[in-house]
Amino acid sequence: MLSPVSLGGAKHRLLPERIPALFFGTAVIAHVIAWAALAFVAAELPYFAGGPGPVLAALHTLTLGVLLCTAFGASLQMLPVALGQSAPTEAVCLVIFATLVTGAALLIAGFAVAGVTLMAGAALPLVVAVALYVHEIARLLRGSAGPLHWFVRTAIIALGVAVLLAAALAANYSLGFLPDHGLFAALHATLAGFGFMGLMVLGLSQILIPMFAIAEPPEEPPLWRAYALAIAALALALTGQGADLAPLTAAGATLGFLAAVQHVQTMRAVVAKRLRRRMGPEFILLGASWVALLLALLAATAAALGLLPATSAALVIILVLYGWLLSILTGVLQRILPFLASMQAARAQVRPLAPTKLVDERALQVHLYGHLAGLGAVAAGTAVAVPELIIAGAVAGTVGALGFAWFALTVLQRTRRHLKTHALERLSPS
Questions:
Q1: How many CB atoms lie within 10 A of CB 284?
Q2: Is residue 102 a contact partner of residue 123, using CB atoms and an 8 Å limit?
Q3: CB 305 within 8 A of CB 253
Q4: How far apart are CA 31 and CA 66, in angstroms?
Q5: What's the confidence (pLDDT) of residue 353?
Q6: What pLDDT digit, counting tens, does each position of 272-312 carry?
Q7: What is the Cα–Cα distance from 253 to 243, expressed in whole angstroms?
Q8: What is the C-alpha R_g of the chain?
Q9: What is the pLDDT of residues 380-419, one digit of tens each?
Q10: Among 72-76, 193-197, 348-352, which stretch is predicted with the lowest mean pLDDT?
Q11: So what CATH class is 15-417?
Q12: Can you tell me the distance from the alpha carbon of 222 to that of 267, in angstroms, rounded to the nearest whole number?
């Protein structure tokens, strides 16, 4: 078998077409906003240290609108395909989407205007969305015990705790019951960024990268090593933050760096043995995400030990969110969207539709150059506290995000044109 994903019968495990379209379409729109918003918070970003306001709103446009929508949509669709399980029902997915978007909109608006009522109102829909999502993913993983399953299991546990902390933080603005709001915010950020998104990305990479590269899946021992290192890193970092022990937090970041190195080595070995010789822009984004992750963990280690200036916290945030996670998720979507479109065509029993025929390469080039230029400028501007550089990066990133929207719209239009053409052929007399 050349891939851990068996495509035989995959069309019978697909969600209805509109479910991935809702999740991914929201992510595409929020992607543009998340880049553009950085231009408006450029002056405050380098010294951001938490708390409601436009910076937190901009960052949550990315985390909730782009990263969480993409992670939810991709895992709800790709895990049934990969694991041979029945997909969640359309009704459950629609409730997850509606509550997630409602909660995200309320929370982002609340952060933007420092509105306590809006932030508190976001808690219930977000908790409902996460609870339903965790239930569905746990169902898909039931009875399995491989590395992928443990990465994803641990990720959804981290997500559950992170959203409960988020609800407590939102309520704390009006009730003031938490002993240290900043500490709980830091724990929430670690669990959400590295616990959920990080482990989910590392887990899904085990099936997606071999599938995209047309390569053998990785052996299990290096995957287990990466998992053990990642869990130990997360535990140390959380303990260090909770006990206010900087050396322990630094040790967690260092172990996280080793986990990342193990993961990157494993994935590079998979790609090196690929049968698909042509490397598309998604693999450049994949490489950029690995570099950003390693740099973020090195910066986090140094920052925990007080070896970097005051801008280091914001720099780590940019490297993790815009560098690591956004790079890899947009790269993944460049392959998932055409793949799902071709499978939907197969389910509709029309003529085969090659994923490559759905893609406008010009759009992907615009996204690639805009994203990389934007990331470099925003990271540099944050590190040296130069708002003008951040604004330039935000503009470049926004152009790249518009290129990505162009790509996604092209996939949708070409798919619908194909389906319409086939429907007309069926109706025409032989």
A1: 16
A2: no
A3: no
A4: 6
A5: 74
A6: 888 877 778 999 999 999 999 999 999 999 999 999 999 99
A7: 15
A8: 21
A9: 999 999 999 999 999 999 999 999 999 999 999 988 887 7
A10: 348-352
A11: mainly alpha
A12: 10
Tokens of 408: 């996604």
Which residue is listed with tokens 């509606």? 98
Residues 155-195 have pLDDT tens digits of 999 999 999 999 999 999 989 999 999 999 999 999 999 99
Instruction: Indicate the domain borders of the chain.
Output: 15-417
Q: Which residue has the tokens 């918003």?
A: 37
